[in-house]
Amino acid sequence: xxxxLLSTLVSCLALTTLRADLIWYEGFNYPDxxxxxxxGGLWAxxxxxxxxxxxxxxxxxxxxxxxxDDVNRQFCTVGGxxxxxxxxxxxxxxxxxxxxxxxxxxxxxxFINGTSSLQGRLFSLPGSLPxxxxxxxxxxxxxxxxxxxxxxxxxxxxQVVVGWNPTASQVDQLYSLSASLWVNPxxxxxxxxxxxxxxxxPAIAQGYAFRQASSSGNxxxxxxxxxxxxxxxEAATNVWATNAVAPGIVYQPKGGTxxxxxxxxxxxxxxxxxxxxxxxxxxxxxAPFSNPAGNSSVLAFATTDVGDxxxxxxxxxxxxxxxxxxxxxxxxxxxxxxxPTITQQPTNTTVYFGQTATLFCGANGPGTLSYTWxxxxxxxxxxxxxxxxxxxxxxxxxxxxQNNNGTTGTYRCNVANNNGTTPSSNAVVSATSVPxxxxxxxxxxxxxxxxxxxxxxxxxxxxxxxxxxTNLTASPNLSIMIQDATAGIGVFMSGAAANLPQxxxxxxxxxxxxxxxxxxxxxxxxxxxxxxxTVNSHNNPLPTPYVLPLSFTNGIAYGGVSxxxxxYVSARITLPNVYFADPSVNFASGQLxxxxxxxxxxxxxxxxxxAVTPVVAGQxxxxxxxxxxxxxxxxxxxxxxxxxxxxxxxxxxxxxxAATPPLPVTISGITATAIPYTGxxxxxxxxxxxxxxxxxxxxxTRVATNSATPGSFSISTGGTQTFFRVxxx
Length: 729
Description:
Layout: E1 22-26, E2 33-34, H1 35-38, E3 43-47, E4 54-56, E5 59-63, E6 70-74, E7 90-100, E8 106-113, E9 117-126, E10 133-138, E11 146-147, E12 157-165, E13 178-183, E14 193-194, E15 207-210, E16 220-229, H2 232-237, E17 248-251, E18 256-259, E19 264-267, E20 269-271, E21 279-284, E22 287-289, E23 298-301, E24 310-317, E25 323-325, E26 329-334, E27 341-344, E28 349-352, E29 357-360, E30 362-364, E31 370-375, E32 378-379, H3 380-383, E33 388-389, E34 395-398, E35 409-417, E36 420-423, E37 427-432, H4 439-443, E38 459-466, E39 478-483, E40 488-494, E41 506-516, E42 519-525, E43 532-537, E44 546-547, H5 560-568, E45 572-580, E46 592-597, E47 603-608, H6 613-616, E48 626-634, E49 647-649, E50 657-659, E51 674-677, E52 684-690, E53 701-707, E54 711-714, E55 723-728
C-alpha cells in the first residue's frame, strides 16, 4: 500500500504507472487559457457561457465571484468503457489550495451523469476559526449534508478524496446510495465522512466536473493532480507521493498578556496525513497540559488566574506517529490594581425641545465594570426621573428633553471595578427651540431634479392658515394643507386625536419634511414630544387664491416647473372660466378625478379624494363656465421624470366650484313682465334673482332656465325691490 505525502512539505507528484482501475489521471498539462479550448477536447462546458474556466501554470482555477463556467471531463470519449454503462462506485482525488477564503457556502466539484445529475457534491464554506475554511459534502443535495470537522488553512495544499456509490450495496467504506469525503487520507482504511442524504434514484457517474458560482462569495482556489478511478487506492495514490512525513503547523498559537478573571484562547491550525485523525497535545512549560476540550487544536480558558501564566505549545502527531511542535506562545496573567479606563467620553449634546438625547461612556479594565450616572452631581437613581433610563449601563437615554422637567444639565458617569473608580468627563445636555421659518424656506430645501426634500430628519417650525375644509385622510391620522404669506405646504400627523383644526384656523406645526406622491409635507408624530401641532386662533380669512390659467404649468411667465411647484403647489389657486367635461348629471361617490377644460382646449385635473367625495357626491355637475378654487395638488411618483405632469386642483367643498360672472347677454325692450335677451355662448340661459345687488353671484337664486335660443323671461316683482340677471351657461 502506498503512503500519502503531506502536501505542504513536498511537491505533489503524479505516478506514471497507471493500473486498470484508474480511469484517467489529469495533470492539467495544457497551455494557459480556457480549458475547453486548450485540453484537446477532453474538457467541455456543461453550464455557463463565460468561457472562463482557466488553466494557468498547469493548475485549474476555481473562482466563484468572477467566473461562471462549469466544466467536466467525461470518463469515456470512445466506446468500450464499461465503467460508464452500469451503476458502480467511483472515486475522485485531487489537490485543492484555497487562496481566497469563502464567505458563503457553495459546491464547487461533483460527479456528473451526462450534463444533468450531480452526485458527490463537494462544498467550500467558512471555517469556525478566523482565517480558515472547511469542506462539506452531500450525496446529491444542493446543500451541505456533512461538514468535515477540521478547519483548513488558506494557501495550503490538501488532498481531497470523494467517493460515490450509486449501488444498493456497500462498497469498501462507501455506504449504498451515498457519498464519502476524505482529506489527506493515509489509505483506504481511514474512516471517511459519509453523507446521510440517501439518493432514491441514483445515476451512473459518467464524468467529473468543477463548478464556479457567485454564491460562494470571495472563494478562489486552484485544483491540481486529479485522478478518477474505480478504487480508493488508485484515486488517492495516483495524486500524491507515497512516503510518510511529519505534520506541519500552519497557524502558530499566539501568546500575550491577560488580566485575572478574563477569558483567553489559544488556537492553532495543523496539516498532515490522516487529517481527521491527528492527535493534538498541548504543552505548558514543556509538560503535557490537559485540554478540557479533549483532542482539539483550540485551548480555551473561561477565566484565567496568575497560575495560568506560562509557555504553551501544541504538539501534533499523525497516525504514523510522526509529530511536529509549534512555536512557544507565552501567556502572562497579571492582576495589578488597575481601575477602569475611559475609552470614550460622553459628549455635550444639544437637541430640540422634546427630543431624546443619548450619552455613552465607553470603558475597559479587568474584572466586572459597573456604571453609575450622575446628573448635576446627584445620582440619576436618586432623582428617579422617568425620562432618564439606562443607569447602570454605558448608555444613558434622556427622553423629552425640556428646560423644566429635570432633563437638561450636567451629566457624568463613574465606572468602577474591584480596583477603583474612574469618573468620566462632564457632558452638558441642553435643549433649544426648533428653527422658525417660512413655508417658502422649506420649499427651497429640495433637490433640483425631483424637488423632493433633501433632509427628512431635521425639525422645523412654521405657522400658517388651514386652507382645506375636511381632513384629507382617514382618522385617527390627519392630512391638511396650510398656507402663509409665502407659500403652501401639506401637513400629515400620525395618530392625531380629536379637535382637528378647521379651515381658517391659524396653526403652528413642528415636524420634519417628507413627501406624499411628491407633495412636500411636514410630518408630525402625535407621540413624539418634539413634534407639535397647535391651533393659535380660529376664523381667520383664507389666503386670497392665485388666479391661474389652465396652461400655467410650463409657462415662462411663471418661472418654469420648479417655480410653479415652489410657489403654487399646496397653495390656494382659482382656475376661472372652465367647464366640466363629465357628461353625468351629478358628481359620483368614491374617490373621483374630473377633467376641466376651457374655450382654448386646455385641460386640467380636479381631484376629490375619498374624504371629500361624501361632501360633493350627488351634487349637480355645473354646466357652463365656472371657477374652481382649492389647494394646488400634486400626484407623481418619487422618480417620475416629467415633474410637470402631476398637477391637479383639489377643492374640499362643493362651494369651491362657483359659477363665473355671466357671459355678456344683450337685453332689450324690458317690460314690466318680461326680460328679453340675445347673445351668450352656453347651452342654456338662466334667470338669477336677488334682493341684494352686491350679493355674490353664486348665491343668487336660480328662478328659471330657458334653452339656448334667444328669447325672454317672464318676471313678477310683487312690489318688492328685486334685481335680476341673465346668465348663459
